[in-house]
Fold LysR family transcriptional regulator.
Amino acid sequence: MLDLRRLRYFVTVADELHFGRAAERLHIAQPPLTRHIASLENELGIRLFERSTRAVTLTPEGAQFLEHARQVIEAAEQAEVSAQRLAHGTAGRLAIGYTSSIPMSPAFSAIVRGFSREAPDVALTFREVAGTAQPRQIESGVLDIAFGWAASDHADNADQADGAVAQLTVARQPMVAAVAANSEYAACAAVAFEALAHESFIAWPPGQGSVLNTALHRLCAQAGVEPRLGPRASQVAALVALVAAGQGVAIVPAFAASLKMADVAYVPLINAPVLDQIIAWRTHDPSRCALRFAAFARAAATAG
């Protein structure tokens, strides 16, 4: 196995064609440099340099070997850079899961876009995963990072750990009522949920939007009513479209108001429940990229 250090010594002497100047560049004494070159020649079984009292020149074999030596050194340097990027989490792969409503949120796009700019050598893949299935897929390694929702029950965005999964709050979203634009509520500055309690609610299917459905059922419980459930939909845009079609009222995160539909109005709820938008990752042996992503999301949430 060739000594990479001796290859670097050889290339430096070939560049300078002078052992003294090469030794100065390498910050070593000339006699050890001469011995290293002689050892390399013995190992290879060829003479690399012709030496005289007046000049040092490459032999034909040395000139040909120089091309290969440069390629080996360049490959070694690239490998070292790649290893450093992997160690710092700026290269590699991340599998990111998200619930169906998450891509509409400003925090999701800001964090993903910002991380891609900071770590362009990290390949990101995305898949939609129901919130109830995310912890299992994180633990099994199918997902590295997951975006989802949680009930807002703490005052800051500090990391929370629950066994094999850690989570961080990256944004908070109050719930609002999506109502028909011609309804009596549309012109209200805010509305109490009790005023809507008799309406038909467009909700998420079982197994999807569990935290959002829980918020709706909690509001109904506080109002002392059983929710009248209308059609189900698995996308925020579909919920809002069903409101526009006159099929009921939807309780949705505030960012849904970015969906501009002529037949829909978004009305703040008095004492509205607030949801935490979270990211989650493995606590046991997470990838460097996942930790880098979590650190970036933490900084972005703090700055935001």
Summary: The first helix runs from residue 4 to 16.
